[in-house]
Amino acid sequence: FGIGRTAAGQALGGYSVRLGAATGRDGTPSVALLGDTSGQTWRVDRDGFLRSDGQLTALQGVLAPGSAPSAWSGLSLPLTIDLHLAPARELDLRQETLIDGSVTLEIIYL
Prior knowledge:
- The protein has strands spanning 13-19, 23-24, 30-35, 42-44, 56-61, 75-76, 79-85.
- By secondary structure, it is an all-beta fold.
- The protein has a 3-stranded antiparallel β-sheet with strand order 4-3-5, with no helix packed on it. Strands 1-7 form a two-stranded antiparallel sheet.
């Protein structure tokens, strides 16, 4: 995910978003899953990074069989956002440059 450009059009860098350990309202811990773009095939995603390539991320209760998203009536999870700046020596920073990035979390009910 990008965070904007300098006045000269140089990319400032990017950021990554990662899901932390989630817990259901009933106290059930979960594991992150990575799915194909159709949501038909799932596998455990140990990193938990959100992706911008169309792959889906879901959460499964650790006690649920197989690898498929679990149904949740409530879920709490932290998000970690890491900023990655391009090396300053590679950027024209003679003018003030704002960092400009946004992310939208889309919830899909399967």
